[in-house]
Design a protein that fits this description.
Chain lengths: 426, 285
């Protein structure tokens, strides 16, 4: 029996401001005589969302900014109502949406604990019982009788978190609250959440942009995009889909901005006409699988004689970290190129970079003098996909960019005598 | 509390209302305590400020009366007008506060669900404390003039409850409308201060009665005009408060009846509108 059920829920908002009195009158008149009038456009924050949550489940909700995550949580918390569809929640819901919503600066810490606990629906007797625990968790024993307007922002969120997590509700709704305080306190918050989830068996709905955290805490993840559920399942799978979606988004912005950013230096004697990446069958593409073979094809137009040109092709990240370069010197001898159109092809076997978005840089130099004829960065952006790779563990900035190509082996060690066996036993 | 099931389902709105109030009494009390604490925490004179307004108005009216002459019957004028001002100030301030209460708590409305009538109710409860202080001051004045409250003073709680209902009538509809049109919170204080002159605050109701019912000053229209005047619930109410506290008389039910019926119609409508609008507060606010 699911304790949270969301059934074909759609939430629409009217975009724009309150219309002026004049506009209202004009609209009203037009409506009366049946002429079309300019109303405010509806915007679907949630579009036909359906899912259910069983008791004890920890559901992560991820998605880009504006995907509808917070709107969904608001519906579940009962703060807002859906335009159509049905939301049903059995049991008490405690919202941890932006902890400290009810904090009053002029009141002391003690008074704020009482106030906020009451707002969260904790009975008076319970508050008295939990008070010391809340204060010690927030590490604020010294300052509890100081008005919280004198608190640092870190102290405020600590107090807010301590209060919010002391509610005895079956269902906890958590919106980006784990990133509070310093590292030590974040650790504490995380442990508290794990305790609530794993040992007390609460049902938790968690929204976060910290995908690692979502993957670690949740038993199931829902991916929202433009108000629609586009994936629902095991955390690793859904998180991977999300990473790919993020990469695609970066790629899209890169493609549209490709001509405006990145340096281009040219002597005027060479220019590029086109750059494409091709798969084995010769199809043009901007995304391919990790370890695929790809061919980069560049159309050059040469405007003056180029003696023994050296071509180079490099790969860099979207923030211009140069990762690899290949030069044609020693492997391609062309003699002097006469003016005309040329097609340069470079094939990379088992493309080694881990999933992510990368870009190409190209260059042409004269042989002998190494004088640059043409150089350009950020010429073409492309995406490396990785269905089998767990991206939550292997993201660029922690795990590097290149996959190692090696073989693993594990064998049991043969034990020769009793003494070494005893040494291992102890 | 934080129960998810709709707080406004089937059944009579009256019962739902009573249930919601009962369920949330701790919250209302705590929020009212917060309002009072916050308002006076950084103020040296504290709660004295709440007494100051009716007292100063009383002084002005006493001076005014020395020019124009208002017959206050056998009750000293300062006490008579202070009694009227106590109940009037309570009504005016709780209604005005109630109207801004929903918008003023936007941060809570966007985050947490509990029945939204908690906010107007909190405003009224907060002002109830100040009314208590004003009544204490009134008692001092009565002692000074040697007026003892009689057995009819037992009516006071009932009349205060009636005033609360009047404030809520304005606060429910007003606070919901104010979410959509902030004009309401700007217009209301103006309208309320006009309403004071239409209520027997400066002058006793007896003067109006004399003029319209006895002297028939407006000819054939006198009766109708008096009815219109008493359609304002405050007219009968203020007079009754003066009756039971100062004149040792029962409330003037005849003067209260039109206003009471009017309120009986308006209050449920106001509450229903509030509950209908409530669902969209978080989206619009």
């Amino acid at each position: 029996m699911p304790i949270v059920e969301v059934d074909h829920v759609t939430k629409e908002f009217q975009l724009g401001q309150l219309v002026s009195l004049k506009q209202s009158v004009v609209n009203g008149l037009n409506r009366l005589v049946g002429r079309p009038f300019e109303g405010r456009k509806p915007f679907k924050a949630l579009d036909d969302v359906t899912f259910s949550v069983e008791g004890g489940e920890v559901l992560g909700i991820i998605g880009h900014n504006g995907a509808g995550k917070s709107t969904l949580l608001k519906l579940l918390a009962g703060v807002s109502t859906s335009s159509s569809g049905r939301v049903s929640v059995i049991g008490k819901v405690a919202p941890l949406i932006e902890v400290g919503a009810g904090m009053v600066p002029d009141l002391t810490g003690r008074e704020n604990v009482h106030l906020n606990c009451t707002i969260l629906g904790i009975p008076k007797k319970e508050i008295a019982r939990k008070f010391d625990h809340i204060v010690s968790f927030a590490e604020l024993e010294e300052f509890i009788d100081t008005p919280i307007k004198h608190y640092s922002s870190g102290m405020k969120v600590k107090l807010g978190f301590a209060i919010a997590t002391s509610v005895d509700a079956e269902i906890l709704i958590v919106d980006e609250v784990l990133a509070v305080g310093d590292l030590a306190f974040q650790r504490k918050c995380f442990d508290r959440m794990e305790d609530l989830i794993k040992r007390q068996g609460r049902t938790v709905l968690l929204v976060s942009h910290n995908i690692r955290q979502v993957e670690r805490l949740c038993s199931r993840v829902l991916l929202l995009d433009h108000g629609k559920v586009i994936n629902d399942g095991a955390p690793t799978d859904v998180c991977n889909v999300f990473y790919e979606l993020s990469d695609k988004r970066i790629l899209d912005t890169k493609l549209s901005a490709a001509t405006t950013s990145g340096r281009t230096l040219t002597s005027g004697n060479a220019e590029i006409e086109y750059v494409v990446m091709l798969d084995k069958r010769g199809n043009s593409l901007t995304a391919f699988e990790y370890l695929d073979d790809v061919e980069i094809r560049v159309g050059y137009r040469i405007l003056a004689d180029l003696p023994d040109p050296i071509f180079s092709i490099g790969v860099h990240t979207t923030d211009f970290l140069y990762l690899a370069t290949s030069q044609s010197i020693g492997s391609l001898s062309t003699g002097t190129l006469l003016p005309g159109h040329y097609v340069l092809s470079y094939t990379i076997h088992r493309f080694p970079f881990l999933p992510g978005v990368y870009s190409l840089r190209l260059g042409v130099a004269l042989g002998g003098s190494f004088q640059a004829v043409f150089y350009s960065e950020n010429v073409l952006s492309f995406q490396v996909l990785g269905k089998q790779i767990n991206r939550a563990v292997q993201s660029h900035y922690r795990e590097g960019f290149v996959g190692l190509d090696g073989e693993w082996e594990l064998t049991a060690r043969e034990l020769t005598d009793a003494s070494s066996r005893a040494a291992i036993a102890t | 509390m934080l129960y998810q099931e709709s707080s406004f389902g089937n059944g009579f709105p009256v019962f739902n209302f009573i249930k919601n109030v009962a369920d949330n009494r701790e919250l209302i009390a705590t929020l009212a305590w917060k309002n009072i604490t916050v308002r006076y925490k950084q103020a040296y004179l504290g709660l004295v400020w709440s007494v100051l307004k009716p007292l100063m108005l009383m002084c002005i009216f006493v001076v005014l009366r020395s020019f124009i002459g208002i017959n206050s019957g056998n009750v000293p004028y300062p006490v008579l007008t202070l009694a009227a001002l106590s109940i009037w100030t309570f009504f005016q301030e709780s209604a005005a506060d109630g109207v801004t209460s929903v918008v003023g708590n936007a941060s809570l409305i966007r985050k947490i669900y509990f029945p939204r009538e908690v906010f107007p109710l909190t405003s009224v409860s907060t002002k109830l404390v100040e009314l208590g202080i004003n009544f204490a001051v009134l008692a001092c004045f009565m002692a000074w003039y040697g007026i003892l409250p009689g057995i009819y003073a037992l009516w006071v709680p009932v009349l205060v409850f009636y005033t609360v209902m009047l404030s809520l009538t304005i606060a429910f509809a007003g606070s919901a409308l104010n979410v959509y049109y902030r004009d309401v919170s700007t217009a209301l204080p103006v309208l309320l201060s006009l309403m004071m002159y239409l209520s027997p605050v400066i002058y006793p109701l007896q003067l109006v009665k004399n003029k319209l019912l006895i002297e028939q000053a407006a000819g054939a229209w006198s009766g109708k005009l008096y009815f219109l005047y008493t359609l304002n619930p405050l007219a009968g109410l203020i007079d009754s408060v003066q009756n039971v506290m100062l004149r040792h008389q029962p409330p003037d039910f005849e003067a209260m009846l039109p206003g009471f019926c009017f309120t009986l119609v308006l209050l449920p409508l106001s509450y229903l509108y509030f509950k209908r609008a409530e669902a969209h507060f978080a989206d619009v606010i």
